[in-house]
Amino acid sequence: MARASLIACSRAIAVGPLEERCLTLAMTHPVILLFGATGDLAKRMLWPSLFHLHCDGLLPEGLRVLGTSRSLLTAGDFRLELDATLRRFGHAEDISDLNLAEFLARVDYLALDVESATDFQSLAAALADAGEILCYLSTSPSLYTAICTHLRAVGLAGANVRLILEKPIGHDLASSRRISDAVGAIFAEDQIYRIDHYLGKETVQNLLALRFANSLFEPVWNAAAIESVQITIAETVGIEGRWSYYDDAGALRDMVQNHMLQLLALVAMEPPANLAGVRDEKVKVLQSLRPINAGNVRRQTLAGQYAAGALAGTPMPGYLEEDGAVARSTTETYVALSAYIDNWRWKGVPFFLQTGKRLGRRHTEIVVRFREVPHNIFEGAQAAVQSNRLVIRLQPEETITLELMNKQPGLYGVQLQPVALNLSMADAFGTDRRRIAYERLLLDALNGNSTLFVRRDELEAAWLWIDGIHTGWVQAGMRPVPYAAGSAGPVDACDMPGAANCDRNG
Ligand code: BG6
C-alpha cells in the first residue's frame, strides 16, 4: 500500500488531491498494528514472517510495527522478548545481531486493553504520524467488534486503514454474520483481508500455475477423466495446549471450514479470466457443494477422537487426557468427508477430505486420481494397469508428482509399474528455504492485493455447508469414534466414497 502510494507520488504532477496526499505521506510512515502481539500465532508465525521480509529487504521503507496486547510490558522489555522469540523461530540464516537490531528498531509496543477507550486514545496518539495502517487482528474473534468500534472512535478507521482478520471468523454462519456485520459497518469490504494461511503456501499457489499455465490438464480436469480427488491434512501434533479453543471448534471448524474448503475450491474452480477473478470462481464451487444433512451424514462423514496411543514409540495421551480436558467431551479431532460438487464439471466425482490430529505421519496432499484405461491390452498379473495420479504434496516436502504406468525394462513379456514424474520445488529451484505462508500474505495485504484472501460470501458459503454437517451429526445422533494416537485414524474412513488408496496402517 505505502509502496504503491509512494510510487504514485513520485510520478505525480504537483497539483490537486494527489499532491496533498503525497505531501501528507511524505511526513508519515506506514505502520503494521498488531493486536495479539504476544500470542502464540504472533510468536511462531507473524513476527518471524515480518523479520524475514525485513531481512530480504521486502518491507516498505520506513515501515514501523506496533505490537499491542494486554501484557504490561515496556517497549524495551517487549523488544528483549521479541529478540529471543526471533532467535528461536526465525530462519537460522537470517539471525545475526545486526539483522535483529535493525528489525527491532522498527518495532514498538503498547500495552492495551481492547475494552478500554482510554487505551485506544493512547494508541491513536502513538500513531499520530502513521500514514497507511495495516491492522492485524490476531486475537480471539470475540474481540473483533470491540477493537473495530474503538478504532473508529479514535479516528483509526479511515481509508488509509486495512484490516487483517484471523480465523475463526465465527463459530457458525449466524455468528460469522454477526461479526461481519459489525466489522462491515465500520470498514468497507475492500479494506478487510480475511486470512487463511493455506493460501500463502507456495504449493497452493502453484496449483493455480499448474492448472492455468499449462494446457495439458484442463481438457482432462473433469468428471469424464477424473475418478476422485482426495485432500488430506494429517497432523502428528495434538491440540498444543489450546484445549478451550479446540474443544469449542473441533476438526470440522478448525480445518475443514477454512483450509480444506479453500484447497477444494482451488482444485475445482472454473478458469477465471484473470487472477482478480479467482475469488468469484471459488465462491461458485462452495455454493455448489451438495448439502450434507441428517439423510446422508452417516454415509458421507466420519468423525473420530484420538485415544491414548504412541507416536514413534513415545506414549501419547488421549484427547480426553490432555491438559485442561473435560472428560465427557465429544469434540472430533478427526473428520473424513465425501463431498460432491453439483455442477457439470464435477457431477458424481467424490472429493474425499480427511484431516486429523495425532495421526501417525504428518502429510498434507491433494491427490487427483484419473479414471482407469477403458480396456487393458496387456496380459498377466504383472500387467495390471493402475490409475494415473497427480499428487500435489504441500507438506512436509513441496512436490508435484504425476504417476504414469511404465513398462519395466526387460525382454520377457510386459511388466507394468507406476513410475513418478517428479517435480521437487527444492530441486527445480535450487532452494530448500521454506517461506512461512504468512510472509506472502502480509506482503500482499501491504500492497493492497486481496486475491489470496477470503471474501465474505466465500466465508458464508463455507459456513452454511459446515453448519449442515453439524446439524446432521446432532440429528443422526452421531458421535466421534475413537482412534489410537499415532494411527492412521478410524479405519472405517477407508470405505467411504472417494477414499481410494486409503492408508489403513498409518
Ligand atoms: C491452524 C489450525 O489453522 O492450522 C491448527 O488452527 C493447525 O489446529 C494448523 O494445526 C495447521 O497448519 P499447518 O500450516 O501447520 O498445516
Describe this entry's structure for a reader:
- This protein is an alpha/beta fold.
- Strand 15 (399-407) and strand 16 form a beta hairpin.
- The chain contains 15 helices and 17 strands.
- It is globular and about 80 Å long.
- Helix 3 (40-55) crosses helix 14.
- It has helices at residues 2-11, 16-26, 40-55, 75-89, 97-104, 117-126, 144-153, 173-184, 202-212, 243-268, 278-287, 297-300, 425-429, 437-446, 456-476, and strands at residues 29-35, 64-69, 107-111, 130-137, 161-165, 192-194, 226-234, 301-307, 309-311, 314-316, 334-339, 351-356, 363-370, 389-395, 399-407, 416-424, 481-484.
- 35% of the residues lie in helices and 21% in strands.
- The chain starts with a helix and ends in a 22-residue tail after the last strand.
- A 9-stranded mixed β-sheet has the order 16-15-14-13-7-12-11-8-17. It has a 6-stranded parallel β-sheet with strand order 3-2-1-4-5-6. Strands 9-10 form a two-stranded antiparallel sheet.
- 6-O-phosphono-beta-D-glucopyranose binds at residues 235, 254, 364, 395.
Which properties best describe this structure?
single chain, 506 residues, alpha/beta, 9-stranded mixed β-sheet, 6-stranded parallel β-sheet, 15 helices, globular, disordered N terminus, binds 6-O-phosphono-beta-D-glucopyranose
